[in-house]
């Protein structure tokens, strides 16, 4: 009998808890576009405090948070942003910074640990003397944790180095901190310290933290004032948005301490998968809530029951034969349907 289903496709598949639903039902609200919504203001004030920034702004998604942040920093068409070859902004956000913002991306290779070599970042900065032919570098983006590298954490020291480089060249630093709370818990370093060198950051509430909707961007008061206008331009101004922010406040209060457990489960999953003949994971590289199979390509994994019975599984070309033998999966069909999925995510629902 199926006792429980755990969906590991993403840490976004969480459901709001009873406490979140109650908070939403009882939220005090007003029109956040006309002036402000009191519950949104409470969330934004709390997020500014936790991240050590002057101000914060609730946005509907991480994608919009990153887009707004890049556009505020690169407000002249033909600006260039330096970002990781494996970054979410570059790969998964529909090229919005280019199609909507006229911002040119310049990628630097992400190392397996999620960093980009600082000397390679410096080498990618355009020489202003060549402005007759070059775009103008205005921004560097980091991602912490780096999702596509398997949820690896960037240290405060590394981020500081990139921040110093940005300052030296008159550039801004934005951090896609979709999972910055995971990094903070894993490293034992407060979020505000990890973001100290950043001019702006976007933080997702709807991933590991389990809120149903939303991200918050943080930065200086003037950055947030410009971000608020852009949010409206992009259709992200929401009226009684306190309904959503109320759930996010519960997520902040109740779920941050649970992330440590997610990380332990991810590690356990990686070590367990490693016991399977033909599967090779670098379990030591599992630092947070994402299990990435960097050698063979791990696809989706849906557990049925807490025992070892795996239904419809996943696997790499290398190890698919072995998996088929183990679990009698229709491998060809599965590979066809899931060929792009190569990460497993652990979240509070798992
Ligand atoms: C690192 C990272 N940044 C940004 C996003 C975008 O968030 P959203 O799905 O809320 O647009 C994601 C989504 O998975 C992500 O993993």
UniProtKB/TrEMBL annotation:
<dbReference type="InterPro" id="IPR015422">
    <property type="entry name" value="PyrdxlP-dep_Trfase_small"/>
</dbReference>
<protein>
    <recommendedName>
        <fullName>Aromatic amino acid beta-eliminating lyase/threonine aldolase domain-containing protein</fullName>
    </recommendedName>
</protein>
<dbReference type="InterPro" id="IPR015421">
    <property type="entry name" value="PyrdxlP-dep_Trfase_major"/>
</dbReference>
<dbReference type="InterPro" id="IPR023603">
    <property type="entry name" value="Low_specificity_L-TA-like"/>
</dbReference>
<feature type="domain" description="Aromatic amino acid beta-eliminating lyase/threonine aldolase">
    <location>
        <begin position="7"/>
        <end position="291"/>
    </location>
</feature>
<dbReference type="InterPro" id="IPR015424">
    <property type="entry name" value="PyrdxlP-dep_Trfase"/>
</dbReference>
<dbReference type="InterPro" id="IPR001597">
    <property type="entry name" value="ArAA_b-elim_lyase/Thr_aldolase"/>
</dbReference>
<comment type="similarity">
    <text>Belongs to the threonine aldolase family.</text>
</comment>
<keyword id="KW-0663">Pyridoxal phosphate</keyword>
<dbReference type="Pfam" id="PF01212">
    <property type="entry name" value="Beta_elim_lyase"/>
</dbReference>
């Amino acid at each position: 009998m199926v006792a429980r289903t755990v969906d590991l496709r993403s840490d976004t598949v969480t459901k709001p808890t009873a406490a979140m639903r109650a908070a939403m039902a009882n939220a005090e609200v007003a029109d956040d576009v006309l002036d402000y919504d009191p519950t949104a203001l409470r969330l934004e004030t709390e997020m500014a405090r936790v991240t050590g920034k002057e101000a914060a702004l609730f946005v509907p998604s991480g994608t919009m948070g990153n887009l707004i942040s890049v556009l505020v920093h690169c407000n002249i068409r033909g600006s260039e942003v330096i970002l990781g070859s494996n970054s979410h902004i570059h790969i998964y956000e529909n090229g919005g910074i280019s199609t909507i913002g006229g911002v040119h991306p310049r990628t630097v290779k992400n190392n397996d640990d999620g960093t980009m070599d600082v000397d390679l970042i410096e080498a990618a900065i355009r020489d202003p003397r060549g402005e007759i032919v070059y775009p103008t570098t205005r921004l560097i983006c980091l991602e912490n944790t780096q999702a596509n590298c398997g949820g690896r954490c960037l240290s405060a020291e590394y981020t500081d180095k990139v921040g110093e480089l940005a300052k030296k060249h008159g550039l801004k630093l934005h951090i896609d901190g979709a999972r910055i709370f995971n990094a903070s818990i894993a490293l034992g370093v407060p979020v505000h310290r990890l973001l100290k060198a950043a001019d702006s950051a976007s933080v997702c509430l709807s991933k590991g933290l389990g809120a149903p909707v939303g991200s918050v961007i943080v930065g200086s008061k003037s950055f947030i004032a410009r971000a608020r206008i852009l949010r409206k331009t992009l259709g992200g101004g929401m009226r009684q948005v306190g309904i959503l922010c109320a759930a996010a406040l519960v997520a902040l209060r109740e779920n941050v301490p649970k992330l440590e457990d997610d990380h332990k489960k991810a590690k356990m999953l990686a070590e367990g998968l490693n016991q399977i003949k033909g599967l090779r994971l670098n379990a030591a590289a599992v630092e947070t809530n994402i299990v990435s199979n960097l050698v063979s390509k791990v696809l989706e994994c849906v557990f049925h029951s807490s025992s070892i019975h795996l239904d419809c599984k996943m696997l790499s070309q290398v190890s698919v034969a072995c998996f088929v033998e183990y679990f009698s999966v229709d491998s060809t069909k599965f590979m066809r349907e899931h060929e792009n999925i190569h990460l497993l995510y652990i979240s509070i629902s798992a």
